[in-house]
Amino acid sequence: MFVKTRAQLRRLLVDFSKGVTTPLTCRLLGRPQAPEVPESLHLLLSAKTWDFGVLAALSFEHSTGRRWPIVVHEDGTITPDQRKTIEHFLECRFVTRAEADAVAEQRLANHPLSLDQRRSHVFMLKFFDLEPFAPKERFVYLDSDIIFYREAREVIDWQASGRHECWFNEDTRETYCSPREEIEAEMGVSLWRAVNAGFCLVTKRALSLDLTERLLTTFQGRARHPQFYEQTLWALNASHFGQGGLLPRTYEISWGLLKRPGCICRHYVGPPAKDILYIEGTHSLLAQALLKKLRLA
After folding, report:
1. Most buried by CB count within 10 Å: which residue of 58, 164, 230, 247?
2. What is the model's pTM?
């Protein structure tokens, strides 16, 4: 009985957050009144994750104190009403799946396995679709289930420096398409450890379609975990480029109930974590937004 009641209470909290707290938080946060930086911020959203994504983008901008040109990519499921709301809150460049498909068919024409992977697996859009729609040499990618809570000093420094480096969150465990030793032996590249591709600071100079195609060709039919191709490709390209690395663990990835004290952001991984994001994430941001309004009043 207690377990059932607890589950019902959790469901009520999540539903309240979806219907009330999240849209209220987005309205109160808004976009910062600050100069726009050249580097673009990219998100891949679906009909199920779009509201997460709006909150993630707004929290990121406020943690950096800057406005970023926002580019929203969609997986083909976003409805017209959802798009209208996304564009209202983020004032973004919205890239439809049809538009991205047309670009990819031309861009990947000479890389058939890359094209096939992009056609077959939606997460591969994260790897192949950002570069052609990023207006400058450097850009940021952000998963929809990451919320920023504190000043992201490392991101601010990367943006201001103009350095051509790649930076990623450190995963809780290493998840590549095959064991590190096999990839390193076949590709001749020492991989950075435990790269998580949910949050990426990227330079286009690090990305090689030829290197990408070579990994897909090498491990075709024998990858232990093909669902992690996308993350492996980020790690391979960045490691081969060799500039950058892993962000501090205050850029948190965790499966726990509550974020760790002092964390800059939290990546809410695992199915139950999506409910925790709605409960912890939206209410924490709402409290921050209200306190900021009171200080400015």
Report:
1. 58
2. 0.93
In the predicted structure, residue 293 carries a pLDDT above the cut 80: no
Q: Which residues pair with 142 in a beta bridge?
A: 199
* CATH numbers and ranges of domains, the chain: 35-150+163-296 (3.90.550.10)
Q: How far apart are CA 145 and CA 135, in angstroms?
A: 25
- For residue 3, name the pLDDT band (cuts at 50, 70, 90): very low
Q: What is the DSSP letter of 228?
A: G
Which candidate, 218, 217, 231, places its Cα nearest to that of 267? 231
Cβ atoms of 186 and 236 closer than 8 Å:
no
For 5, the token pair is 């009641």
Locus of tokens 């994001």: 277
**Contacts of 161 by beta carbon, 8 Å cutoff, 6+ apart:** none
The amino acid at 96: T
* Percent over 90 (pLDDT), the chain: 76
Residue 1 in this model has a pLDDT that exceeds 80 = no
**Phi and psi torsions of 186, nearest 5°:** -75, -40
DSSP string of 259-285, one letter each residue? PPTT-SEEEE-SHHHHHHIIIIIHHHH
> In which order are the strands placed within the sheet that holds 93-95?
93-95, 70-74, 40-45, 138-142, 195-203, 166-170, 244-246
- Pairing type for strands 265-268 and 146-148 reads antiparallel
